[in-house]
Amino acid sequence: MTPSNWSRLTAETPLVKVFRYAEIASTNDRARVYLRRKRTPLTGPVLFAADRQTAGRGRGDHTWWSPDGGLFLSYAARRSDFGLAAGESVELSVAAASAVAQTLRPRGQKKKPFSVRVKHPNDVLLNGRKVCGILIESPAPETVIVGIGINLNRPSVPVPEELRERYVSVEETLGAPLDPLSFVTELTQRLFP
């Protein structure tokens, strides 16, 4: 786990715990293990964040390319933390994608205009190209994991040829890098009512 000032998120957002990694296989998988091993019920949302993933995944059998420069998050929480009843995963996917879009929009107004839209049910498009994917999993009826992979800053390695047509990062669109902690703080405040 990478030490950092990310622990301040527990004071500035509803998060009760934050785990941050330089590299991890999958933040959703780590969240699932955490929930399985936890002996007491969750008292609020827990965040797992990584600079890169070695086995990032999307819906179905899709993989999510997760190099340095991206931001890979999984929120483990009770359904009630999101204001949801049992079985409302599609609504949560759209709500998470909308929260990402709302966090991005002001940045385009300040620096370089761009269009952001939610592609139902789990993608966010930036100027028509995929910048974010959402993966919702429910390991138990009362808990949910919201995985968010966002191409925040330029990747540290070349974009694979099969992704070049649809891949975009926020940094390349704006022409300037974004601070991941600032982005996560705003996103988290939007995700939890």
What brief labels describe this structure?
5 helices; alpha+beta; seven-stranded mixed β-sheet; single chain; BirA Bifunctional Protein, domain 2; 193 residues
Task: Report what the structure shows.
With 193 residues, this protein is an alpha+beta fold. The chain has one domain: 2-Layer Sandwich (BirA Bifunctional Protein, domain 2). It has 5 helices and 7 strands; from the N terminus they run H-E-H-E-E-H-E-E-E-E-H-H. It has helices at 9-12, 27-37, 89-110, 170-174, 180-191, and strands at residues 17-24, 46-53, 71-78, 116-119, 123-126, 129-140, 143-150. Strands 1-2-3-7-6-5-4 form a 7-stranded mixed sheet, with helices on both faces. Helix 3 packs across helix 5. The longest helix has 22 residues, at 89-110.
SS strand fraction: 25-35%
What is the radius of gyration? Answer: 16 Å
Sheet with the most strands? Answer: 7 strands, mixed
Please trace the helix and strand order, writing H or E for each element.
HEHEEHEEEEHH
Indicate the low-confidence ranges by residue numbers: none
CATH architecture: 2-Layer Sandwich
Mean pLDDT: 87
- What class would the helix/strand composition place it in? alpha+beta
CATH class: Alpha Beta
**Gross morphology:** globular
Q: What helical percentage do the residues reach?
A: 25-40%
The separation of the N and C termini measures 28 Å
CATH topology call:
BirA Bifunctional Protein, domain 2
Write out the CATH superfamily name.
Bira Bifunctional Protein, Domain 2
Provide the number of structural domains: 1
Q: Would you count the extended β strands for me? A: 7
Number of helices: 5
Strand order, largest beta sheet? 1-2-3-7-6-5-4
